[in-house]
Amino acid sequence: MKSILKYASFILVLTFASTLFAQEKSKRDLDNYRQPDKRGINVFEAPKDTVSTFEDIRVRIGGSSTLQFQALDHENGVDQALIDGGTVQPLQDIGSNFNLATANLDLDVALAKGVRMHLRTYLSSRHHPEPYVKGGYFQIDNLDFISPGLLENFMKYTTIKVGHMENNYGDAHFRRTDNAQAIYNPFVGNLIMDSFTTEVGAEIYYQRNGFLGMIGFSNGKLNQDVEINNGSNTGGAAFIAKVGYDKQLNDDLRFRLTGSLYNTGYAPSVYLYTADRAGSRYYSVMTTPTYFDWRTQSMQNTTATNTFRTGRFDPGFRNRITAIMVNPFVKYGGLEFFGTLEFANGGASTETDDRSTTQLAGEVIYRFGSAENFYIGGRYNTVSSEQSFGDADIDRVQLSAGYFLTKNILAKVEYVSQSYDGYPDDDVLYDGKFNGLMVEAVISF
Predict the structure, then answer these.
(1) Does residue 121 lie within any of the structural domains?
(2) Which residues are CB-contacts of 91 (< 8 A; sequence separation ≥ 6)?
(3) N or C terminus: fewer CB in 10 A for the chain?
(4) How many domains does the chain contain in total?
């Protein structure tokens, strides 16, 4: 079945590609739309256009493809653990080579004046080598499709989104790599605690004179089903909110500051930090060797750390969470700063007391060249979390440089160094660290 899907997807992509030449003869830009190329950098929520160019249903076919060369080393404190009487496992040997090439397929359809649909499919990803639908939504910026002039003054500043979609918690998810869509990210890796989830819900936005307000609700579930959990219901719910200010103060200076909230009561599973089904960019780091299990006749991992999320951190808030993220952004000329201050509390249904986790990140990027086609930058990212064994601390430094060959093609190189502290001597992350170089090529259109 997977082979059939792969061949069918390949044929589908070829069919879509044959229409691109025809598309180029017409206007590819859509209303209220974030461009999937260099023009979309430092764009957060989709811009609110007040003039509609809609004439008839129009389909914009786009996508992205990304490939990395990885040269990372890793180590843990296995020798010291043995001296201390611990049982930490040695790490899997890793070398330098190319990672799996990833690809996205995007469909954006103008359905009516101020009404648009978006659908993203991962054609290939680290966790899903077969095609996998990430999600999609309807975006409504005008109500003329119901009745001409309906709430016209209100809808000048209002946007409504409904679907199984990426929830708008925080601003960091607008700069993260989404499988093959890596052109917005000046680095190769996302944050250590990667705040990202796709849930069924609705969001309503009001943007006016630089001020932004958003409230949203979702069913709090990544995997949709109707099964009863704990004998009482089919799931929980999540409340999402954001307020902020974003203004181009003069020709050189732009300032943005937002605060966001993600909150659940009880949820069958909280996926805010584990929802990404594309996978981490740092392949196989901090993992132990696999072995052949004769009972299942398959290769097994000696620990649960050998997953597609290597290099990331999940605080383990399984059934309840309250998370707050504050994001300042300042751009002066070619120099920009983006910060993340995230404070999360929660736990599992089996825990009587909430635990807390704090993530801090700051990145400085300098873009230069006649069209800012070059950039250099650095990011410092820390996580401190209360765990059952004590406090865990993770630190990461990333240094990056990039070059836009065209507005659709980006090449970047990153040096990354990450270290772990506070883990017990029976954990594979005990005195762990990894570092090295990543080279990434991105095409997005």
Answers:
(1) yes
(2) 74, 75, 76, 78, 286, 287, 288, 289, 428
(3) N
(4) 1
